[in-house]
Write a structure and sequence with these properties.
By secondary structure, the protein is of the alpha/beta class. It is built from 23 helices and 26 strands. It is globular, with a radius of gyration of 25 Å.
Length: 667
């Protein structure tokens, strides 16, 4: 056994009794863990420390013994319903203790877990499950009913989150024997595809086990509590869940769909969370506000985009005990390929992405796939034992991105440009292609452009990113209309929301006469970026003055002031729509947090996007203030329909455009 990772004294506070913490001397080395696999690692902790806390979601708390019993029982239930070794099974659930139980059960039943986002459009879900070869979708009964899937489905037993569905004796029979082994795929996770087709990445069990077991790149031991708040469709969740359970730590599940800054802070404080992963974009916003979420944490891992030195410096100065780790890695390299512990000295320049970790190797190659010399820039290729199998159902693309190098072995081509410092640490310098990162999401513009060209009134399209500062990046689409009526930008976005997940719907659509081209006839991305600097969000391509509406009420003016700061432009109309002005869910978090601080009211993101106008949110604020001061509440009018309609207009586009805050991968 390897030495246990460092721990801090357990001084966390809870809102109720919890099971005792596990023994910090139960770690195993990475190669042993790789051969054993994740299910066996969890079972070992259940044998050694059966009463240690494994998972809590606020409503349900599972010890390691209870988790294993529940998962084995559910595995037997799944096998009784036809699930067998190698089957690809889609999992449709919200974040909960039951989600963790179900993932473990699928593996013990021998299946491959294909996580599905309940919020994404049905056509995309159907395309993904078809590409992945899914034979069955299991999930929460209500979600299965609302999803209206065409293939076979099976509702998870309601009791699976807290207890075994069969007796312990029945559960053990055959449940463990079906595990597909360390080389079998554990997950198929989808990332954006340049041809309009998302890519399903098959990640093996052994790669995840090697990543999370006794991780020397981050402090993580049996006394820790790790926050699980990423969507399970994103590879950061593998670190959050299995990083905890592989090391005898506890998973603390945040069940709030889109938590506000205040929700995160309260959750971390209430459950004594010590380790958390944040997308870089979310970290930047939390850092800018010096969120108290950092005061409870000991370790923060960030990833998804370039980490701003200014924000890292602010956090390390305000919370000097904090271990801040900058992680890098596409899904194809199993979450993290490199990592770097950020120090105050790093914040004087560009923060590096670090050195290879946990069995990964890195190679900086020139266009002829030969190693560059010294600190020269080149393309980053990743090798080692944690590469994905490839893209399920796409052998040509797999052969293009995963190669057998004559001298270096099997490598994955990242498309990222890096350089190596004298001490071996890597710096990130951009991309070799058009792929972009927005708010932590890895996005292929071609996927959005393909969906735009499918619209009858769009002849051609191009998508780029507009960055107004280190903390804000927005997708902007430029479309060339077919002959006839010019398409309305809001209608274009609404149709996209029917076929693409929210994070792929552009924040603004601009109609142009033609797309700028390079001398070789390709779309000129640099020229597009220049157009984005002058385009009116949601406009038709020609900047125009926005006339103010009738005078705003005092509450509307207060809301408009908060919006103006977040959006970086003056908001003057009561009917102004947040998303139409270029807002997105991360900026919505900023607005709701400012409204809480300045007006003393709390709006959930669901409330925010149900009433996305200045007038609608002013009405919500008024209702919240009256509810807090019931002695000031006027008698309710006989007919409140007008008020209700003002507060929550029928704005399907706004609701569908509210995206998750996490990343599909962390490079």
């Amino acid at each position: 056994m390897s030495p246990s990772t460092p721990i801090i004294s357990d001084t966390r506070k809870d809102d109720g009794p919890v099971p005792p913490l596990s023994d910090p001397t139960t770690t195993v080395d990475r190669q042993t863990a790789r051969r054993a696999g994740l299910p066996d690692l969890v079972a070992r902790h259940a044998e050694r420390t059966p009463n240690a806390l494994a998972v809590t979601d606020g409503d349900h708390t599972l010890t390691y013994s209870q988790l294993v019993t529940a998962a084995r029982g559910l595995a037997a239930y799944l096998r009784a319903h036809g699930v067998g070794r190698g089957d690809r099974v889609a999992l449709l659930t919200t974040r909960s203790a039951g989600t963790v139980t179900a993932q473990l059960a699928l593996w013990w039943a021998g299946a491959v877990c294909v996580p599905i986002d309940p919020a994404q459009p049905l056509p995309r879900t159907e395309a993904m499950t078809a590409d992945a070869g899914v034979t069955l979708t299991v999930g929460e009964a209500k979600l299965l009913e609302s999803a209206r899937l065409t293939g076979p489905t099976l509702a998870l037993p309601e009791s699976s989150a807290v207890s075994g569905v069969l007796s312990a004796t029945e559960a053990v029979v055959g449940a463990g024997d079906a595990f597909d082994g360390p080389d079998g795929p554990a997950f198929i996770m989808f990332t954006s595809g340049s041809t309009g087709r998302p890519k399903g990445v098959a990640v093996p069990h052994g790669a995840i086990a090697e990543l999370v077991t006794d991780p020397h790149y981050v402090t993580l031991g049996a006394r820790d509590r790790v926050l699980f708040h990423s969507p399970m469709t994103f590879d950061a969740s593998t670190f959050e869940v299995w990083g905890a359970l592989a090391n005898g730590a506890a998973v603390v599940v945040c069940t709030v769909d889109r938590p506000s800054f205040e929700d995160l802070a309260r959750h971390v404080e209430r459950h004594g969370v010590t380790v958390a992963f944040f997308t870089t974009a979310l970290f930047h916003q939390l850092a800018a506000r010096r969120s108290r979420v950092f005061s409870q944490l000991r370790t923060v891992v960030v990833g998804g985009e370039a980490l701003a030195a200014t924000h890292a410096r602010e956090v390390l100065r305000a919370f000097p005990w904090l271990e801040l780790v900058n992680g890098y890695g596409p899904t194809e390299t199993t979450t993290f390929a490199t990592a770097h512990r950020v120090t105050a000295a790093d914040c004087d320049g560009q923060i590096p992405i670090g050195r290879p970790i946990a069995g990964a190797t890195v190679h900086v190659l020139d266009p002829d796939r030969r190693p560059v010399t010294g600190s020269a820039r080149g393309e980053l290729w990743v090798g080692g034992s944690r590469l994905a199998h490839g893209y399920t159902g796409q052998p040509a693309l797999t052969a293009e991105r995963f190669i057998e190098h004559p001298a270096l072995g099997r490598l994955y081509r990242t498309g990222d440009v890096v350089s190596r410092r004298p001490d071996g640490v890597l710096d990130f310098h951009g991309r070799t292609d058009d792929q972009i990162k927005v708010r932590g999401f890895r996005i292929e513009p071609g996927e959005i452009e393909h969906a735009l060209r499918e619209q009858a009134d769009v002849d051609d399209a191009a998508v780029t990113v507009h960055r107004s500062g280190a903390d804000d990046a927005r997708l902007v689409a430029y479309v060339v209309a077919t002959p006839g009526p010019v398409p309305r930008p809001d209608a274009v976005r609404l149709r996209l929301a029917d076929v693409l997940p929210a994070h792929l719907v552009p924040d603004a659509v601009t109609v142009v006469d033609r797309l700028p081209l390079t001398p070789s006839g390709k779309v000129d991305r640099r020229a597009l970026a220049g157009l984005a600097d002058t385009a009116v969000p949601g406009g038709s391509g020609t900047p125009t003055a926005v006339a103010p509406s009738a005078a705003l009420t005092p509450l509307e003016q207060a809301v408009a002031n908060v919006w103006s700061r977040a959006l970086g432009s003056e908001v003057m109309r009561s009917d102004a729509d947040f998303l139409a002005l270029g807002g997105h869910s991360l900026l919505a978090l900023v607005v709701t947090d400012d409204l809480r601080e300045e007006l003393g009211v709390e709006l959930t993101l669901a409330d925010f996007f149900a009433a996305p106008t200045v007038a609608g949110q002013a009405h919500l604020v008024e209702r919240a203030l009256l509810a807090a001061h019931s002695d000031l509440r006027p008698e309710a009018p006989e007919n409140t329909a007008a008020l209700d309609n003002t507060a929550a207009p029928d704005n399907t586009e706004s609701v569908q455009s509210a995206e998750s805050l996490e990343c599909t991968d962390v490079h």
